[in-house]
Amino acid sequence: MKAAVEQVKGTFEGRISERRACGLMKVAVSTFRYQPEGNDGKLRDELIELSRARPRFGYRRLHAMLGGKERVVNHKLVWRLYKEEGLALKRKRRKYLVRVARPLEKAQTRNEEWALDFVSDVLGSGRSIRLLNVADAYTRECVALEVDTSFASRRVTGVLDRAIAEHGAPRRIRSDNGPEFTSRHYLAWAVERGIELLHIQPGKPMQNGRLESLNGKLRDEFLNVSWFRNLFDARRQAKAWRKDYNEVRPHSSLGYRTPRDFAGEASALDLSSAERRKEPQTPAPSSAPPSRLNPGLTDTNVVS
Predict the structure, then answer these.
(1) SS3 for 167?
(2) Tell me: the pLDDT tens digits for 207-224?
(3) CA within 20 to 30 Å of 235's CA: 40, 48, 79, 262, which one?
(4) What angle (nearest 5°) sits at the alpha carbon of residue 268, between those of residues 262 and 270?
(5) Integer Cα distance of 223 and 237 in angstroms
(6) Which of left, alpha, beta for 74 (phi over 0: left; psi -120 to 50: alpha)?
């Protein structure tokens, strides 16, 4: 506003007073005539020295260290000096992963879609362990349940290779955006085998709801009621629970059948359908038999 008053005075120099120019710009004369004392040099030097000693501190923390019981320092003054001296550090903007929504689709056949995720627990010694859970979306079968202290991407693909050797390769795999499922090795592994990868949107676990349901059963029926002496004991019990889950435990979503029975019925239906498609189709008999003289001519074409 002071600059506006100066501009008016310069435009109408000698024809308008200072008070009149301030009145036109609606600026108090005392405000226009005010001259800052400029006694912030000492505070500026203290701020610069303190910021060099504490380069990761922001202006609020520096203000708290500059002030004290003996003197009161205005935080707005500290902020102004902080900006003028360029002491503010650039903040790295967080990068957010963008994924296209891929809602759950009803699986129609076995090995059409697999889903995988991790569940965490602890041993009796207090050491953390992770369980890699892989499930078939159609048969609800727990394809793999691996236990270890950590899982790199090569460890994950090794588990999937063993599951593929036992059950066949899936068309697509659904997972979250963990580093094990977004590494170059994992992506190259999927491209090499022609498997489509579906990554859910961050913060939306229900886009992988089938496996979340299995994870809930795994924790409620196994982890919460089990105690593991060591890693080998955890692997042994996980193997037994997976066998019971696939072959003994009835599932309401499968008409209270076990996943192994449902998978067997689905395989039998697929085999019978494939056999029906392979059966040769017998041509329909023709209403008018071909002529005995020339198979390519009918009786009406024969000239006597």
Answers:
(1) helix
(2) 999 899 999 999 999 999
(3) 262
(4) 100
(5) 10
(6) beta
- Quote the percentage of the chain above a pLDDT of 70: 87
Query: Sign of dihedral through CA atoms 43, 47, 49, 53?
Result: positive
CA distances in angstroms from 259 to 214, 252, 276, listed in the order given: 12, 11, 26
Task: Say which amino acid occupies 204.
Answer: K
How many residues belong to the chain?
304
User: DSSP secondary-structure letter at 195?
Assistant: -
Single-letter code of the amino acid located at 218: L
**18/191 Cα distance (integer angstroms):** 78
Multiple choice CATH, 113-261, 1.10.1040.10, 1.10.150.120, 3.30.420.10, 3.30.1330.10: 3.30.420.10
- pTM (2 decimals)? 0.62
Enumerate residue ranges in the chain where pLDDT < 50: 291-304
Q: Please state, in angstroms and rounded to a whole number, the distance separating the CA atoms of residues 180 and 173.
A: 13
**Which parts of the chain fold into alpha helices (H)?**
2-11, 18-24, 29-33, 41-53, 59-66, 75-84, 153-167, 179-182, 184-193, 209-221, 231-247, 259-278
Amino acid at site 104: L
